[in-house]
Structure formats: structure tokens, C-alpha cells
């Protein structure tokens, strides 16, 4: 009889834990907005199945959503007038390219002596699973410097102070990892539109918090 009671209590506890976990998980879910520039893609919110994008190729071969190209160009032109020379290191990625990057990262950790399980877990802290990467939207870019003219730090500092003026936000700010699911990345910016970008900048929030 005691065994039955213990089993019964364990089942109730398991159900309670499951309900709590479910509620916590749901706090990360964000409904897909009608505005293309506000779609949230992260480890809890996958790329919409019907998402399609028209791409424009940059001078270095990287691709971006054609709708953000004029604003990106405007931002880069403004930076150059202040002797800051940004370049897009990474733009749009296909799901296959995202998987390849993740696989390479996992293998890199294995080569360093990590177990398969630890390598996969650690790699996923830095590289998104296919379907959960903003790079698949085409409106996110990793921006570094033309090293022959300035440093990455020069670019990151300028972007942090000015990107919002052109509709871009620092996607993964410091101290927001639990909300965004991604560590601080001073090079990763995405387009949200000038009005929203200004609000996010002035309130010092991340994109996920904008919807709360």
C-alpha cells in the first residue's frame, strides 16, 4: 500500500513539474507579427514555414534581404564619413549552411578533446540550430571592420551609438542571454525599422522585451 501511495505522489509531483516547465517555456514564445521586420527568431521561436525572401548580393558576395539593403548602405556610408569602415562578414544563410556551421563547431570542440555530448551542447551555445537563426531571415548581419582601415572595436563602438538611426539594433546585448538565448555579440545587428530601433535603443532593451 505504501508503495502505491509513493508512486501516486511521484506521479503528481512529475505532473506539477511538467506544468511549471511548460509555463516557463511559454514565456519565451512570441506570436509571429504581421510586420516582416519584427519577426522574432531564436531558440524558442522558429523561422515561419512560409517565410520567403528576395535577396540582394553585396560587393563581397554576401546576401541580404533586398528590403534592408538601402538602410544598410546608408548606415555604412555614414560610418565611412567618420573614418569607420564596416563590412558585412555574414549575411543571409540557408538552413544547409547553418547546419554546416553547427557541425563544424561541434567538430572543433571534439578536436579539442570534448566528448560528443559536451561538444554538441557547447556548440549550441554559440551556433543556432537550423530554423532558429536570424541569418535565415536575411535581415540580420554580422558586421566587422575593414582591418586595413580601422579595427573591429571602432566599428562596434560606432554601431552601438548610431545603428538605431538607420533601423538596426544590437540583437544580443550584454546581460540579456536568458531572454535572447544567445551570448553578447557586438557584431550582430538586425533590421527592425527606425521607429522600433529608436525605442529599443532608448529603453536599453532587447527585441524580445519589446513585445512584453
UniProtKB/TrEMBL annotation:
Residues 63-194 form the D-alanyl-D-alanine carboxypeptidase-like core domain. SUPFAM superfamilies: Hedgehog/DD-peptidase. GO terms for biological process: proteolysis. InterPro entries: DD-CPase-like, VanY-like_core_dom, VanY/YodJ_core_dom, Zn_M74/Hedgehog-like. GO terms for molecular function: peptidase activity. CDD domains: LD-carboxypeptidase. Pfam families: VanY. This is D-alanyl-D-alanine carboxypeptidase-like core domain-containing protein. It comes from Agathobacter rectalis.
